[in-house]
Amino acid sequence: MNEMMTKAREIITGYKGRPLRIMEVCGTHTHEIFRLGIRKLVPQGVEIISGPGCPVCVTAVGFIDEAIWLALEKGCVICTFGDLIKVPGTEISLAGARSKGADIRPVYSPLDAVELARQDRDKQVVFLAVGFETTTPSACLAAKTAKEEGLDNFSLLTANKTMPNAYNALVGSADAFIYPGHVNAITGNATCIRLCKEKGVSGVVAGFTASELMTALAVCIRGLEKGEPFFKNCYPRVVKDEGNPAAIRIMEEVMEPCNSEWRGLGLIPMSGMKLREEYSGFDARVKFDMPKITGKPNPACRCGDVLQGKCKPSDCKVFGKVCTPLHPVGACMVSDEGACSAYYQYSGLI
Amino acid sequence: MCVGLSARVVSVKDDTALIDAGGAKRSISAGVLDDLEPGDYVMVHAGVAIAKITETDEQEAEDIMGELL
Amino acid sequence: MSEQTVTLAHGAGGRQTSELIEKVFKAHFSNPEFTADDAAVLPKIDGRLGFTTDGFIVSPWKFNGGNIGKLSICGTVNDLSCMGARPKYMTCAFVIEEGFSLSALEEIAAAMEKTANEAGVKIVAGDTKVAGKGQVDGVFITTTGVGEIVPGADTSGKYAKPGDAIIVTGDVGRHGCTILLARDTYGIDSDVDSDCAPLWGTVEDIFSVTKDVHVIRDATRGGVGTVLYEIAEQSDVGITLDQSAIPVDERVKGVCGLLGLEPLYLACEGRLVIFAPDDKAQAIVDKLREGKYSGNAAIIGHVTEENKGRVILETEIGTQTILPQPKGELLPRIC
Fold first, then answer.
1. Cβ contact, residue pair B64, A215, below 8 Å
2. Residue C1: its pLDDT value, please?
3. How many angstroms separate the first and last alpha carbons of chain B?
4. Where do the structural domains in chain B lie, given as residue ranges?
5. Do A182 and B50 touch (CB under 8 A)?
6. Do residues C64 and C161 lie in contact, with contact meaning Cβ atoms separated by under 8 Å?
7. pLDDT digits 0-9 by tens, B14-69
8. Where does the pLDDT of residue C245 fall: very low under 50, low under 70, confident under 90, or very high at 90 and above?
9. DSSP 8-state class, residue C162
10. Across C140-154, average pLDDT
11. Which of A336, A343, A344, A350 to mutate to test the interface with C (most CBs of C within 10 A)?
């Protein structure tokens, strides 16, 4: 540990004030905080909570059902980030659909799905576009490329989400936010600065290395000690106040805001992105004339309440019994850093 | 969300950049960054360079912690 | 001239089968015990025997640092070695897809010969079947091996004891990373190569320091992380690892960084995980570091009485976390 990290550690572990709730809203922050053991470092009374920033955890059950419909009913090749493959739909997950013969392929980038469509013009390739502002430009680049090349065998199934209205929905649920560095790399800091000025919401933009996370947490705790609302960009080597204008432009060119359903939070107005009219030929829902598919989450699963901090994983009836990391029922059990999975693996340990 | 990895730009051609992360090389899109040059460091996410960056986090931590202490 | 390939006739048991065996297998596996009869007849072996079998399917059949032939010898040699059994004899059974290239088969057999020679094991019997196009992916190989357990060796996944030091014989995750890239699913190029190697020599190195070693396990499918969870459960102990002590090749780190993967869960094919008394651990590591396949061996952690069945990581910020439990299929985490 270098000198700066030691100093940050001292500030964090030395905190003795009132109880604090600090919320991070990024799946990779959750992952790194878990991997680094930061929850075990913070003093009692400081609670680090995971907000709805993991695309896997907030993706509605119905979205998985839609993807499975495209794969099994329409014979589409489904390209997806690996993250989504084990997420349960109403009946089965994409992994389950694969064992029934669906062609499900994990890809690194939506642009790889375009390449696949280019190489095999006889197959209909659908990319599952999930994620926040960081990821959405890559899906937009894919749609734009496909349109320019006239690739009529490529489309997107969109569930892209945006953070600003989610922040509004979350105001009051934490004393400070750790803002997602890579989202802000695209969007810039205007929303966070406005939240601070207009609503007194405190927060820091954080990176993802040990040093970056520890620094951001130290700044956060110092700021909360002082008591005034604050905003600080602790990731300036990547995040500029203005964000990435070219990425914002391409998002606006290809997509437009829409209402979006968040698992656990319900429908948040204008918190999603969908393809614009000009791109409807690349919208899998339009292209394949998809019927309305409404997912039915397992009624016993309380992932929604867990995500909002309304109950502990152990309060859920299926937790640890039918719902385990190997056989997840809800999304919070799917990824290692999901609230239920972490709780399950840590139980009895700390 | 958003696994990102910092990588060095090896070469750029049109809107495509070849990047190197610890010897792992991959072609990615440079479609949302202007003026990328070989030797630049970028943050890569899902096959797209999303930001030009400085190489390490050390100076950053020093600056921010310096303000704090 | 078009490339010669394996045909269904090669597997029909007639003259073409004999030709295939003569030209490809006998040419490479020749030794006095290699049999043309129904079974090999072997000299008496003293002492206790180690006896094991393993099937190999790998796509693609050839990768940076090896091929399925080398792998099929290493896998069985290493399984025997882990039990302290000096590999003596092996059999191999091939299931070959119709249309598979004969020169590729030759290359596989040559790799098997070379690796078997290095490990000091004799291939004494074999079998060849040819399956129709599409029924297998290229070639599948099953090897079976028998070895002589050296006096004084007594290892088992059940024998880990609190206080034991845990050693890995080299950097982790190279084979898994190599195969992932060889499949070219993710468009990543790297010169990372498989760690695939026969490890009887490595075990001999360990035994030259002490035979008081509790567990030796080769970290194949599922990687070092999976092996550690298996042993924690079998021995009913806890395991604490020092995250920063785990050797990982820079190239593997790069690939894992791009794809959000954990190197501890990528397969190795030339790495042992060793549980030994703490006071002998440094001497073992010192000896291993002189070895051909264990130059960056390291002590990565210890066995504990508490946290039974769990693998805990000491992190770079001086706190603890848990190594997530293995979950089978490795999937990149991007978003």
1. yes
2. 43
3. 31
4. 5-68
5. yes
6. no
7. 999 999 998 899 999 999 998 899 999 999 999 999 999 987 788 888 889 888 87
8. very high
9. T
10. 97
11. A336
Beta-carbon neighbour count of residue B34 at 10 Å? 9
Q: Does domain C165-322 have CATH number 3.50.50.60?
A: no
Distance CA A280, CA C306 (A): 58
CB contact under 8 A, C318 and A27: no
Return the number of CB contacts < 8 Å for A and C: 95
Top CATH class, B5-68: mainly beta
pLDDT value, residue A265:
75
- Strands C311-314 and C62-63, by their bridges, are unpaired
Q: Is B21 on the interface with A (CB under 8 A)?
A: no
Q: C242 exposed, middle or buried (CB, 10 Å; 0-12, 13-18, 19+)?
A: middle
Tokens read off for A76? 């589409």
Query: Does A1-295 carry CATH code 3.40.50.11740?
Result: yes
Whether C316 and A8 have beta carbons less than 8 Å apart is answered as: no
Total residues found in chain C within this entry: 335
- Report the residue of chain A nearest C188, measured CA to CA: A108
Nearest residue to A174 (alpha-carbon basis) of A197, A199, A157, A194: A199
Which residues from C are below 8 Å from B46, CB to CB? 334-335
Which residue among C317, C319, C335 sits closest to A130, beta carbon to beta carbon? C335
The dotted CATH code for C8-149 is 3.30.1330.10
- Residue A348 is predicted with a pLDDT of 56
pLDDT band at C92 (very low <50, low <70, confident <90, very high): very high
Intervals of CATH 3.90.650.10 along chain C: 165-322
Tokens of A117: 């469509």
Q: Which two tokens stand for residue C331?
A: 């999937």
User: Would you state the pLDDT for residue A350?
Assistant: 44
Kindly report, as residue ranges, where domains of CATH 3.30.1330.10 are found in chain C. 8-149
Q: Which of residues 8-47 of C touch B (CB under 8 A)?
A: none
Please give the structure tokens belonging to residue C35.
């049999």
Stretch C120-148: mean pLDDT: 94
Residue C323's nearest CA partner among C240, C255, C252, C199 is: C240
| CATH 3.40.50.11740 in chain A, residue ranges | 1-295
Residue A238's CB is within 10 A of a number of other CB atoms, namely 26
Nearest Cβ partner for A185 among B31, B50, B59 = B50
Q: Per-residue confidence at A259, pLDDT binned at 50, 70, 90?
A: very high
Picking from B1, B22, B27, the nearest residue to C254 by CB comes out as B22
What is the ipTM, given to two decimal places?
0.94
* pLDDT attached to residue C185: 86
pLDDT, tens digit (0-9, with 9 covering 90-100), for A13-27 = 999 999 999 999 888
Among B residues 23-62, those touching chain C with beta carbons less than 8 Å apart: 23-27, 44-46
- How many residues comprise chain A? 350
Paired residues of B11 in beta bridges:
B18
Range A331-341 average pLDDT: 79
Chain B hits for C191, CB-CB cut-off 8 Å, are 23
Q: Is A323 helix (H, G, I), strand (E, B) or coil?
A: strand
Q: For residue C140, what is the DSSP state?
A: E
Q: Dihedrals φ, ψ of A349, to 5°?
A: -95, -50
pLDDT the model gives residue A326: 81
Order of strands across the sheet with C139-149?
A: C49-56, C139-149, C85-97, C122-131
Query: Residue B49 is inside which H or E element, if any?
Result: strand B48-53
Predicted TM-score (pTM) of this structure:
0.90
